[in-house]
Amino acid sequence: MNMRIAEVARVVGVSPGTIRKWERQQLVRPPRGANGYRYFTSREIQRLALIKRMTLQGMSLVAIRHALPPTPAEVGTAPSRLPGILRLLRTEAGLSVQELSQAIGVSGVELVLLEGGRATGSVATLQRLATLYGVALIDLVKGDVAPQAQFMPAQERPQLALPDEDVTIEGLAQGPVGLQPTLLTVAPGGGAEESHAHPGEEFLYLLSGRLEIWLGDTRYLLEPGDSLAFLSLTPHRWRAIAPTATMILWVHREDHQDQPGKDTLPALAWRLGKGVDA
Prior knowledge:
The protein has 278 residues and is an alpha+beta fold. It has two domains: 5-68, Multidrug-efflux Transporter Regulator, Chain: A, Domain 2 (Orthogonal Bundle), CATH 1.10.1660; 82-273, Jelly Rolls (Sandwich). It contains eleven helices and ten strands. A six-stranded antiparallel sheet has the order 1-2-3-10-5-8, with no helix packed on it. Strands 4-9-6-7 form a four-stranded antiparallel sheet, covered by helices on one side. The longest helix is centred in the first third of the chain and has 15 residues, at 42-56.
């Protein structure tokens, strides 16, 4: 579904001028056709509806910009290192695509798309890959290891945007530490709908919004200030159900035992820095 700005304005319930203003504020970045006209897909329309709800709740445009997940255009402004990192990790582990597919239960087609940079994957798929390779999920973004003590300025946090799930993951620490703290920003309705499990433990603290999380057959509903801790081997899935962006402090402690990619990131970082690819 591709719609022009006048049609979208009627659907969302705002004027075309308001949409242009939001575009100037970089809240939305609709693609343009060869004729120069904007066109809007269902994703952009959902984003516009979310922006409208936020403005009706009294949020400033600056606050909205910080609360929204990155747009697909923003995600594509810098080349992603994820495909090269995934290819190198698989090479280090000595696995073929077919062997990797069988090991983590993800189709070979999806893995080829991920390694080719033609897909961003899901939280569940990336978590399975990180667990198999013995790395933190956020290490897949940056591909290096930090010293024992680490200060990470807010503007230098590595980010991993998953547009298909409306989730942005920011690493709050990186390297060979037992804990893997991350900050998740989730658009309304976004989340990991696919149930997944892996070794380790998890703790989450809800900063804003509302979160529905399922541990096996048990449903938990979290409000701001609520927290939850659980064993990662419990199949889990989750979804943001607030009308505005949901923000979660999520901490993993992975349990890596004899996994094929363990201790490969220093060499991986050097190779990426030298431009070596698999």
